[in-house]
Each structure stands twice: as C-alpha cells, then as structure tokens.
Amino acid sequence: MTATDAVFELRGVKKYYPVTAGIFKRVTGYVKAVDGVNLSVFRGETLGVVGESGCGKSTLGKVMMRLEPATEGQILFTSNGKTRDVNAMNSKELFAFRKHVQMVFQDPYSALNPQKTIRQAFDEPLRIHGVASADERLAIMERMMDIVNLRSEHLDRYPHEFSGGQRQRICIARALCVNPEVVILDEPVSALDVSIQAQILNLMKDIQAEMNLTYIFIAHDLSVVQFMSDRIAVMYLGKVVELADANELYESPLVESV
Q1: Class of 46-68+95-251 in CATH
Q2: Rounded to an integer, what distance in angstroms lies between the CA atom of residue 175 and that of residue 180?
Q3: Given CB 3.0 to 4.6 Å as the disulfide criterion, which of 14, 56, 65, 102 pairs with 180?
Q4: Is the CB of residue 126 less than 8 Å from the CB of residue 177?
C-alpha cells in the first residue's frame, strides 16, 4: 500500500491535558495522552491499536473523530480525492466528515438513550444527514437491522429490552446507517460476555467485506486484535512504539508484552 491509498494520515499528533494546582488553577504540567503519533490508515484495511489501559489509544480515536481537538499535529482525511486536515475543519466540513467516519463505543449500555426506541435512535442521525423521506429512512433502518441479524420489529423496542450483545449490534447498525467509509471501534466487545464476543467480531468482519469498510479497531485484548487486524499499532505512554503486520508482530515482536 502507498500513501495515495491512505484514508487517514496522522503527522505528529499530540493531545495534552493540563494539570492545574491551587485556587488560581495554575498549570503545573501536562498529561501527554497522545504524544507525537505518526500513522497511516489504508483504505479497506483493519488497523488494530493495542496497548495497556491509559496508553492513549481511546484518546487517539476521539482525536481522529475530533470529539476532542488535537493539541498539535495534522490529521489528514482523504475522501473522493480530496484531503483535509480534520483539526482545521470548520463546522460545515466537520459535519460532512462525520458522515464519512463513525465511531462505536465500548459500552452499549450507555451508548443508547434509554428513553428512546431504537427507531428514534436511528431516525436522528438519518435526519441530521439529510435523509428526508420517512419511507427511505425506514428502508435504511430495516436493512441495517437485517445486516446485524436483528428483526425490523425490534425497532419499536427500548434499549433495556435487549441483551448486551444485541445492544452492541444496534450500536453498530446505527453507525452504519449513514453509509460511512471508516468506522472507529473503541473496545467494542470488552463489555460483553466471552460467549458473545466471537459473534460480534465475526459479524463485524462480514459487514466490512459487504460494505467495503475501513476499521480502526482499538482494544487491549491481544487475541481479539490479532483476529481482527491486518496491521497493528502498539501504543505505550501516548506513543506508537511498534507498527507491523498482524502475523509479523505476533511472530517476532519488538515489544515483548503490553
């Protein structure tokens, strides 16, 4: 793969959080959650990002989505032949960007509003991104539910009526309903029972092949990352300390343990 195949290109990306003290909140230092990351994500691949708790991997995903602004560096996103720095986008450009890049979070229990039906949870992003026709929105909802192996009649249920695995399927379907190019998956199975994890992982692989998606798969479980990923970036203390093909990394790692 070459640079022209890259959907994301990170150049010297940093995210620092100030540490303050005293009644005047004087800055005494910084927590370097992401510290000078250089990384490419190629179209159609699954890039695994692995590391111990607190290494900065989830923060990196949020910075790539610009849920949190980068302190420094460039996050270049390429779509339809156009490249833009995510950190420099205005509100209109950021709105369009988030149709192309979606995120699935770790906890399916808190990712869904308990006061809204699944239909309402799907309807909101579709309306926001310009799907005006009610019939068209319903068709998209039903197709997404079918893709994640749930029935369309489930649309009128509330989140508490589903198991953890079913909720995560719904979160995946909601992320897919706007037809993104890239999905950032932040520990998508770590909150689920082991018996359910394999089902979700296999489902995500099938969806990727069907929809030609690019995944950024963030996790701390090495076996899960190896199963899902084409390449793996190992993070430690905010830095990428190793980047290799999945099989190569497991056969001859530079870092012995994470």
Answers
A1: alpha beta
A2: 8
A3: 102
A4: yes
pLDDT for the residue numbered 59: 96
Enumerate the domain spans of the chain. Answer: 46-68+95-251
- Is residue 173 predicted with pLDDT exceeding 70? yes
The string of pLDDT tens digits covering residues 159-172 is 999 998 899 999 99
Q: What is the pLDDT of residues 71-117, one digit of tens each?
A: 999 999 999 889 999 999 999 999 999 999 999 988 888 889 999 99
Of 203, 200, 234, 198, the closest CA to residue 218 belongs to 234
Under the banding of pLDDT at 50, 70 and 90, the label for residue 190 is confident
Is the C-alpha dihedral spanning 238, 242, 247, 252 positive or negative?
Answer: negative
Average pLDDT, the chain: 91
Buried b (16+ CB within 10 A) or exposed e, 187-207: bbbebbeeebbeebbebbeeb
